[in-house]
């Protein structure tokens, strides 16, 4: 991996000459069958611009002109494709820079992916050369690129040039793994259309983030597929994803390698509940990325976004089947995906009743029976009736069998209706003749997405509705305003000065209070007698807790006593928690005890964050208390968040109904809890360079307030902050 400093995402113009070249030079061009140089030239047969081979062995190669070196080219090549071995790559890139190439693609492997220090250093030098020359470099260990629109199949995959011919479409593929991305590109074989295939390989210079930003700027792209295992810089990924969202180009991502655990053992409940995969999911949600967990669903999801207009009525679907069983199955999957299945409008019911026999079912889901398939006009009228129904954002048409004589025509009827309506028409291929008559017509149609699974279809419609709703909300939202005091960060850093490891509870609560977060902070004392005196001044009832940075989880150490009503009780409790702590952790440094007011009962939440290596602070809110890690009822987000966003996180919890006056219980102060979570997120953002994790647990939520009754803060070790 490159050791060069992080940079901003490349703007689309920086990659334009490379990704949309007018001229191409192939270094290592060859006539040897099966060689990368020969395959690349063969794939470029459909490219209209000049292609020149670079190899001193040939004057021409496979019908193209060939020169001894890049210096012998007539003019500056837009794209240089390097098909030569690893040991020649650095010198060839230097030559490309001298002739002012627009960019280069490096096929050769054997660099940082080997893990060998000298090879890692070799790759870093390629990145440094690329950036010093202002010449973007893709790879090494890269399959190549494809611009379907221009026919620039700049890769060594067999028969790629022939495959892309006539299959231009609105979906761009961005992939770290060239082979994995190519498996999706091969959807062309069954009719799917694409605009670009952009593989980054080892990503010494150009990364998936840069390709996402490039695809987002292309007017012919309507959806972006992204396949990757990991990224170097979460900020750059977020920047690219937000560019895609702002451009109205959904980014549909599949992340492999999800068994990776957090890079460091966490001390807090928050840290225990947030690993690297959770950070990616939080980043996806924050940046409007559509996360897909199945590779086979990627193209289908992209088709849903690329081929359909925005939903006109939220999450509602109409299911127009010609088989009762197919309709029921699709309705089941729709409900599982959280979609609405509203009734037909009276006008739709009246129209369908003219065509459907009495043994059918005019409802939603509908069983129109095979009778409506006998005549194309009748079938079209039924689809149009569903599409015109104001209750639906999408109409799902299950196709239950394929037949050489009729299935192809049925597909044509569907696409004809879709071309004249503003409602999304979605088809589900439910038979096992996966590429039977009519399927290729639907796969290639620019307006009708085709699914080969009812479940994936409904999941995609749900994601489609969610994405459009979130984007509209984001566009309409007022500019975010800070909630906590402007000087909170400076005051917090004074409290943290000289601290290493875990902050004791008293300074941890003072830090929260600097952000306007209400706490139950009391008084730290050294002895049981001092504890009794403090309780007399505070007023009863009180709580006594062990005070030790070495015991972050006080309850587990027997270090908490609640609801104490007299001085003698306080003295005994102080002795008890000190004795329990010594037995639990004989080597722990005990600073004494904390005496604080008894806040009272309340619903227990947890709020906190951990610092992820790629994405920075990941906020967590959930049901708290001693069972937090068992219940695992939590929501996460990148920071900072607005109070509205914080409330949305709370409302997404399974426990949320318990906060709203369930079965006569009082309604709790959810807005106060959202305000607290928002302030925690601003603290996380301000102190991302110094605080590794924060855990406020429990946050006691009453009908009037939200109070942090306990707090744990771990400061980054020096090597973490550097």
Descriptive report:
- 37% of the residues lie in helices and 20% in strands.
- Residues 260-272 have low confidence and may be disordered.
- It contains 25 helices and 30 strands.
- Helix 7 packs parallel to helix 8 (234-246), helix 14 packs parallel to helix 15 (407-418) and helix 18 packs antiparallel against helix 19.
- Strand 25 and strand 26 (616-623) form a beta hairpin.
- The chain is an alpha/beta fold and 722 residues long.
- The strands form 5 sheets. Strands 3-4-2-1-5-6-7 form a 7-stranded mixed beta sheet, sandwiched between helices.
Biggest sheet, in brief?
7 strands, mixed
Overall form: flat
**Helical amount among residues, as a percent range?**
25-40%
Mean pLDDT: 92
Which percent band covers the strand fraction?
15-25%
| Structural category | alpha/beta
Number of helices: 25
Strand and helix layout:
Blueprint: H1 12-19, E1 24-27, H2 36-43, E2 51-54, E3 60-61, E4 64-67, E5 79-82, H3 86-98, E6 104-106, H4 117-133, E7 137-138, E8 144-147, E9 152-155, H5 160-164, E10 168-175, H6 178-185, E11 194-199, H7 208-216, E12 223-228, H8 234-246, E13 251-255, H9 269-272, H10 276-287, E14 290-291, H11 298-307, E15 317-321, H12 324-336, H13 346-353, E16 366-367, H14 376-388, E17 394-399, H15 407-418, E18 424-429, H16 439-444, E19 450-451, H17 454-476, H18 488-496, E20 501-503, H19 505-514, E21 523-525, H20 528-538, E22 542-547, E23 560-564, H21 567-584, E24 592-597, E25 603-612, E26 616-623, H22 628-631, E27 634-638, H23 643-651, H24 670-686, E28 691-701, E29 706-708, E30 711-715, H25 718-721
Parallel strand pairs: 1-2, 1-5, 2-4, 5-6, 6-7, 10-11, 10-12, 12-13, 13-14, 15-16, 15-17, 17-18, 18-19
Antiparallel strand pairs: 3-4, 8-9, 8-11, 20-30, 21-24, 22-23, 22-24, 25-26, 25-28, 26-27, 28-29, 28-30
Helix pairs in contact: 1-7, 3-4, 7-8, 8-10, 11-17, 12-17, 13-14, 14-15, 18-19, 20-21, 23-24
């Amino acid at each position: 991996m490159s050791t060069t400093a992080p940079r901003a995402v490349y703007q689309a113009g920086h990659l334009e000459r490379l990704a949309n070249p007018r001229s191409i030079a192939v270094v290592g061009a060859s006539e040897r069958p099966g060689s990368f140089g020969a395959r690349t030239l063969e794939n470029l047969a459909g490219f209209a611009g000049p292609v020149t081979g670079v190899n001193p062995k040939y004057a021409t190669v496979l019908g193209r002109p060939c020169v001894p070196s890049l210096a012998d080219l007539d003019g500056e090549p837009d794209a240089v494709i390097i098909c030569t071995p690893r040991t020649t790559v650095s010198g060839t890139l230097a030559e490309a820079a001298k002739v002012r190439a627009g960019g280069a693609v490096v096929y050769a492997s054997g660099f940082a992916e080997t893990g060998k220090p000298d090879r890692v250093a070799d790759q870093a030098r390629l990145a440094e050369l690329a950036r010093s020359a202002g010449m973007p470099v893709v790879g090494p260990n890269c399959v190549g690129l494809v611009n379907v629109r221009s026919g620039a199949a700049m890769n060594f995959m067999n028969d790629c040039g022939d495959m892309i011919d006539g299959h231009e479409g609105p979906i761009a593929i961005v992939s770290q793994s060239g082979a994995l991305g190519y498996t999706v590109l091969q959807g062309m074989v069954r009719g799917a259309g694409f605009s670009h295939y952009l593989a980054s390989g080892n990503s010494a210079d150009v990364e998936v983030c840069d390709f996402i930003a490039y695809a987002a700027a292309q007017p012919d792209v309507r959806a972006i597929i992204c396949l990757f295992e990991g990224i170097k810089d979460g900020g750059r990924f977020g920047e690219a994803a937000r560019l895609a969202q702002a451009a109205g180009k959904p980014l549909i991502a599949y992340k492999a390698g999800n068994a990776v655990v957090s890079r460091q053992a966490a001390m807090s409940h928050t840290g225990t509940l947030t690993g690297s995969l959770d950070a990616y999911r939080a980043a996806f949600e924050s940046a409007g990325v559509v996360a897909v967990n199945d590779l086979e669903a990627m193209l289908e999801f992209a088709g849903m976004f690329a081929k359909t207009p925005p939903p006109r009525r939220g999450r509602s679907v109409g299911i127009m089947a010609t088989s009762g069983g197919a309709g029921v199955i699709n309705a089941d999957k729709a409900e599982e995906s959280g979609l609405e299945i509203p009734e037909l409008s009276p006008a739709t019911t009246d129209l369908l009743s003219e065509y459907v026999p009495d043994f059918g079912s005019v409802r939603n889901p509908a069983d129109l029976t095979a009778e409506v398939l006998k005549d194309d006009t009748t079938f079209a009228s039924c689809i149009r009736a569903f599409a015109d129904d104001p209750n639906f954002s999408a109409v799902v048409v299950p196709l239950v069998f394929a037949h050489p004589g009729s299935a192809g025509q049925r597909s044509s009827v569907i696409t004809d209706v879709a071309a004249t309506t503003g409602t999304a028409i979605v088809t589900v291929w439910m038979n096992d003749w996966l590429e039977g008559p009519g399927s290729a017509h639907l796969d290639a149609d620019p307006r009708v997405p085709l699914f080969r699974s009812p479940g994936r279809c409904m999941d995609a419609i749900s994601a489609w509705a969610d994405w459009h709703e979130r984007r509209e909300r984001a566009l309409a939202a007022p500019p975010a305003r800070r909630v906590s005091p402007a000087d909170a960060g400076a005051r917090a850093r004074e409290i943290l000065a000289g601290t290493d490891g875990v902050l004791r509870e008293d300074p941890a609560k003072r830090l929260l209070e600097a952000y306007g977060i209400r706490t139950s902070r009391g008084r730290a004392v050294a002895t049981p007698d001092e504890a009794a005196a403090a309780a007399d001044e505070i007023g009863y009832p009180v709580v006594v807790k062990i005070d030790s940075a070495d015991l972050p989880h006080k309850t587990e150490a027997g270090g908490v006593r609640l609801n104490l009503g007299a001085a003698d009780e306080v003295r005994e409790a102080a002795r008890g928690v000190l004795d329990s702590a010594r037995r639990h952790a004989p080597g722990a440094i005990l600073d004494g005890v904390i005496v604080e007011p008894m806040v009272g009962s309340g619903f227990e939440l947890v709020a906190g964050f951990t610092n992820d290596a790629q994405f920075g602070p990941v906020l967590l809110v959930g049901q708290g208390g001693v069972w937090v890690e068992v219940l695992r009822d939590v929501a996460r987000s990148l920071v900072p968040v607005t109070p509205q966003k914080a409330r949305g996180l709370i409302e997404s919890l399974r426990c949320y109904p318990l906060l709203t006056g369930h079965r006569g219980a009082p309604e709790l102060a959810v807005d106060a809890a959202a305000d607290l979570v928002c302030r925690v997120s601003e603290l996380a953002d301000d102190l991302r360079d110094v605080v590794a994790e924060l855990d406020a647990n429990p946050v006691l939520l009453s009908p009037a307030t939200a109070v942090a009754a306990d707090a744990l803060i771990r400061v980054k070790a020096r090597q973490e902050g550097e």
